[in-house]
Design a protein that fits this description.
The chain has 42 residues and is mostly helical. Helices cover 62% and strands 0% of the residues.
Amino acid sequence: MPAVHIRTQDMLSPLERQFLDAAEKGNRPTLESCLQQASLLI
């Protein structure tokens, strides 16, 4: 078992992928939307 578990692109959820894409593009409204959706899942 590896000491550190690293998630690769193919292991990301659709919401995580959307969040990272928005972060790269500087799309603040999408970032906020992703964070709100994630907080509902917790």
